[in-house]
Amino acid sequence: MTTITVIGKHGCHLCPTALGIVEEVVAGLPDEIGDDIEIVERSIEDDLVLYDLWWEKIPVVLIDDEVHAHWRVSPDKLRQRLENR
């Protein structure tokens, strides 16, 4: 199982866009890839460790706890990374 974590906060204008891109890319993947992906939302407002790590870079997208992108998410780069896993 691959976990994609989208880290953001309430009121972040880029966060819904990043989450939407992640959801759209995963939905467009072949079933054998997309069915094995879990999308998790986390907020820096709920976790001081996340806040300390990421407050300047939200939204942040992690794939299996490794940084994939921050601020802006490229659908093409995300799709390519997920297809090549």
From TrEMBL:
**SUPFAM superfamilies in the record, alphabetically?**
Thioredoxin-like (SSF52833)
State the organism of origin.
Microbacterium aerolatum
Full protein name:
Thioredoxin family protein
Q: Enumerate the Pfam families for this protein.
A: Glrx-like
Q: Which domain of life is it from?
A: Bacteria
Gene3D superfamilies (alphabetical): Glutaredoxin
Its lineage opens with:
Bacteria, Bacillati, Actinomycetota, Actinomycetes, Micrococcales
